[in-house]
């Protein structure tokens, strides 16, 4: 994959653009007024817990079937971690001057759960984010994980560390994709949609 370049709208990685409305099961908007408040950020964990409990209804399990119980636990635990990671990033790095809420959507299919989180990002962060996407889609993930750990990046550089994304790709049966859009030519904020497809098989 070539290194990302600027345009009005770009997609990277394994971004599925054919999601069906009938598969949409959850849609939540987090108002920008709340997202701007640091005390609101821990709510990402509460929202992730809700997601894990909600999707468990799609996996009825017989208490005597250890395989069913194991599958449900693995999927709900993965969904909770992934959702929390995506929302944490979205809350922390949303553009403070933007008016758009952070939006989370869940799409349930027979073979996968699709989680999308859309947030704004200041143009100053977009260059490093594009570079991160390039690394995630072209480099060996295990080596990249070790490299990022060794750098011991501080909080200011967390947006470009990508440790959460790398963990999602290494530890779970997932596909990641991103879409970056500039809302208007005069705006210094971009819309960033991160998509994680959690495969059931």
TrEMBL record:
Cross-referenced InterPro entries: DUF6272, Slr1658-like
Pfam families xrefs: DUF6272
NCBIfam families according to UniProt: slr1658_superfam
Protein name: ATP-binding protein
């Amino acid at each position: 994959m070539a290194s990302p370049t600027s345009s009005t709208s770009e997609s990277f990685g394994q971004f599925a653009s054919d999601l069906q409305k009938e598969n949409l099961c959850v849609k939540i908007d987090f108002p920008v007024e709340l997202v701007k408040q640091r005390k609101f950020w821990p709510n990402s964990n509460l929202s992730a817990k809700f997601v894990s409990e909600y999707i468990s209804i799609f996996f009825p399990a017989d208490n005597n079937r250890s395989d069913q119980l194991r599958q449900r636990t693995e999927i709900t635990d993965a969904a909770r971690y992934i959702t929390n990671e995506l929302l944490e990033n979205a809350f922390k790095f949303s553009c403070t001057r933007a008016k758009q809420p952070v939006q989370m959507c869940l799409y349930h299919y027979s073979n996968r759960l699709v989680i999308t989180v859309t947030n704004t990002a200041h143009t100053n962060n977009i260059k490093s984010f594009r570079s991160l996407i390039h690394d995630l889609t072209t480099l060996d993930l295990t080596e990249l994980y070790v490299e990022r750990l060794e750098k011991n990046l501080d909080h200011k550089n967390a947006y470009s560390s990508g440790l959460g994304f790398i963990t999602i790709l290494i530890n779970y049966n997932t596909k990641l994709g991103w879409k970056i859009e500039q809302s208007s030519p005069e705006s210094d904020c971009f819309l960033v949609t991160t998509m994680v497809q959690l495969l059931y098989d």
